[in-house]
Amino acid sequence: MNAEKVAHTLTVGQRAWDAFNKGMTTMDWSDFVAMLTDDFEFYFPQGEWKGLHQGKAKAEEYFALCKKIAPAGFTIVELMHTTVGEDTIVFEFKDEAMIFGNAYKNRVAMSWTLRGEQICSQREYFGSDGKSY
Amino acid sequence: MNITRLALWCASGLFCLSLHASAQSKKTATRMKKVDSQKVAHSLEVGQRGFTVFQKGLATGDWNDFLAMLTDDFSFYFPQGKYQGFHQGKDKAKEFFAYVSTAFPGGLKVTETMHITAGEETIVFEFKDEGELRGAPYKNRVAVSWSIRGNQISEYREYFGSDGKSN
What we know:
Oligomer: heterodimer
Largest sheet of chain B: 6 strands, mixed
Number of strands of chain B: 8
Distance between the termini of chain A: 34 Å
Order of helices and strands of chain A: HHEEHEEEE
Helix content of chain A: 25-40%
Helix content of chain B: 25-40%
Largest interface: A-B, 45 and 48 residues
Strand order of the largest sheet of chain B: 4-3-8-7-6-5
């Protein structure tokens, strides 16, 4: 394992996590979006946004929608596990929010692939049903 | 990431770093911790062995080799359905994996392992699978995260990346 690559992934991943956490909490995604590559792609597990989406503009559209459905933001209740490799980093966390006025809770695994100082791929996985964690 | 290449890198003896969840007040911060490469290599080696027998269980319904790798106090989370939530104990695991094979009598095939991320105590596999769920076509994208203790798996956390209809 290349120690320098792992250390770099750790540094960038930590910075990205802080920006992601800020985006979730405040719905100000500007810091997080600034960390995405132009060819950023992401997978979302369910609903209208289920599947693969490509391009930073699509990500901005998605985060704008998050702001609409949960204007008060999401609370990351607990970060349970973080696993870092050479170019991927995976966060397992619990979150909650009010979505369209309904209580939402989930367990989530968020996996990012990093390139340089940015995130080029995001894969989101749900560990529960949105009603409990 | 090819798991064999990853194993070779780990075995090279270089030190790597790992992030660990902070147990501090808000439980959402991260902190850096230096880990030795031997622990990462061990997680990878045990995880690789675990994933091989896990795939065997999914494909054939014979879970004996996988169950043998679970600690007696093994616990697991499953995302949906009858087993949604947290479960404890190896007996519960035995019941659960038998249930999986009842739901997929023809087996569940891992069609692609996209990413493997190994840390000091955890290993995460991101993969695509497909099969027939009670006769209906089933496809999903899945992340399973295992906590490794000794030569066994002590925790299993499963996450779905799709809806069972596409991957």
